[in-house]
Amino acid sequence: MKSGFFRKFVYYATLVMITLSGFAQMPIFKRYYIADIPGLGWLAKFYVTHQIHYITAVILIAFSFYMLTGYILKRSAGVRLTAVAKLKIFSIAGLIATGGILAYKNLPGVYMGHGLISILDIVHLGFCMLLLMTGFYSLVAKKKWVKQTTRY
After folding, report:
1. pTM for the structure as a whole
2. What confidence tens digit (pLDDT) does each residue in 107-125 have?
3. CA–CA separation, 125 vs 20, rounded Å?
4. Contact 84, 143 (CB under 8 A)
5. Which of 15, 18, 44, 73 allows an S-S link to 35, with CB 3.0 to 4.6 Å?
6. Residue 148 is inside which H or E element, if any?
7. How far is CA 131 from CA 94, 100, 146, 151, in A?
8. Do residues 23 and 29 touch, judged by C-beta distance below 8 A?
């Protein structure tokens, strides 16, 4: 098995689970009876989806740092990021930043105003949608994360 396949599998599986659990924390799966489909009842359980979201967020953060380290090590070999990759990295960094703030507000003794929480939720969802749209575009257009540049 190639390591590229494993990296893609981890990345896509993490994105699917983090997106699914993130949207499941909003009551849309229960409201539209998707959670009534056999096997999908867990989507209506807030604390289950909340824990899955946190676990997959940790995996996404660790994977992001793993890939960043690999990129830094390969950069001297002429590997450069594409524009699509830069947009994905921007959205992932935004998700990590806003998600970190949203997780911090859940700690005991931390208070944030309702307006700030609403703005953070919308910005977090915006970064999620940006990543999903960029990912869909890169799949359809077959855009890669990196390009090899030649050195003279």
Report:
1. 0.86
2. 999 999 999 999 999 999 9
3. 12
4. yes
5. 44
6. strand 146-148
7. 10, 17, 17, 31
8. yes
The two tokens of residue 149 are 């540049």
Cβ 52 vs Cβ 21: under 8 Å? yes
Closest CA to 86 of 76, 97, 94: 94
Q: Which residue type does 61 have?
A: I
Angle, alpha carbons 19-25-28 (nearest 5°): 90
User: From CA 147, how far away is CA 95, in angstroms rounded?
Assistant: 25
Whose CA is closest to 64, among 11, 133, 118, 115? 11
Whole-angstrom distance, CA of residue 68 vs CA of residue 142: 22
DSSP code of residue 146: E
Q: Is 106 helix (H, G, I), strand (E, B) or coil?
A: coil
82 in Cβ contact with 143 (< 8 Å) = yes
